[in-house]
Write a structure and sequence with these properties.
The chain has 97 residues and is mostly helical. The protein has six helices and no strands. It starts with 5 loop residues before the first helix and ends in a 6-residue tail after the last helix.
């Protein structure tokens, strides 16, 4: 399933919320939205995982997979990105029951 559709199906969120969240993690190229997860680079896949976690509005996010096999600096960058995206959604009223 393409990146543009998969988070909508998994989270139940609308197309605009998904596009905005993907853009907030640097996945705003329309060509990426037509790619399947296996066609993404490792960094793109990690950012997609961050976006999906943010869209879920889960009360707890375990970030093992998006941070696995990363050096400390890259891991910290991904966790900071996750924190930024989740905080922005919370401030914008992006909570989804």
């Amino acid at each position: 399933m393409p990146l543009g559709r998969q988070p909508r199906k998994a989270s139940g969120r609308g197309a605009q919320a998904v596009e905005d969240t993907l853009a907030s993690v640097g996945l705003d190229d329309p060509r990426l939205l037509r790619r399947r997860p296996a066609e993404l680079s490792g960094g793109q896949a990690q950012r997609a995982a961050v976006a999906l976690a943010a869209l879920s509005s889960a009360p707890l996010i375990l970030a093992d997979e998006p941070t696995s096999a990363l050096d400390e600096a890259s891991r910290d960058k991904i966790l900071c990105l996750l924190d930024t995206v989740v905080s922005a959604q919370r401030c914008a009223g992006g909570r989804h029951p």
